[in-house]
Amino acid sequence: MAVTTLDARTALIIVDLQKGLLAMPGLPPLGGVVGNAADLAAAFRRKGLPVVLVTVAGGPPGRTEHGRVLRDLPPDWAELIPELNAQPGDHRVTKRTWGAFPHTDLDAHLKAQDVTQVVVAGVATGIGVESTAREAHALGYNVTLAVDAMADRDAAAHDHSVTRIFPRLGETGTTADILALLAGTA
């Protein structure tokens, strides 16, 4: 279902747009994704709506077939990219899991702000973004996914999340769709 509405207390969650992840090989060109995420953040701030900036600083314990890829990280790994123009009023979340909710204060923060809906963007579509959206949905938030403000190094994973998973978790839309709703022109 295409995005139809935004609740009065909607928060923006931008997942893992950070120096370390964006420096990894294999991601598609991210100029449009980064620009769209930055535009969303600026619009949410202008409306006085919560902006949450999530970074990953390591991985959970346990074995996987891909090995433990998030260890021995460089010092600037979790620094947000400057294009997001992080502000003192933005809520920062540092995670060590795929999604932004487990073992963080994100749910408590959103509830304290009376948030009922989240717009999710960032990287990687099939990992951090999808996990965060699944968790938000399970916690009872209305979920909107800004499909042109996200990317994945695996094009098939991105397409699978956008076409098969996201419509089951909430509504999808473009940055322009969401900005129009924020402006009250949609």
Automatic annotation (TrEMBL):
Keywords: Hydrolase. Residues 10-177 form the Isochorismatase-like domain. GO terms for molecular function: hydrolase activity. It holds the Pfam family Isochorismatase. It comes from the Bacteria. The keyword Amino-acid biosynthesis does not apply. PANTHER family: ISOCHORISMATASE FAMILY PROTEIN YECD (PTHR43540:SF7), PEROXYUREIDOACRYLATE/UREIDOACRYLATE AMIDOHYDROLASE-RELATED (PTHR43540). This is Nicotinamidase-related amidase. It comes from Nitrospirillum amazonense.
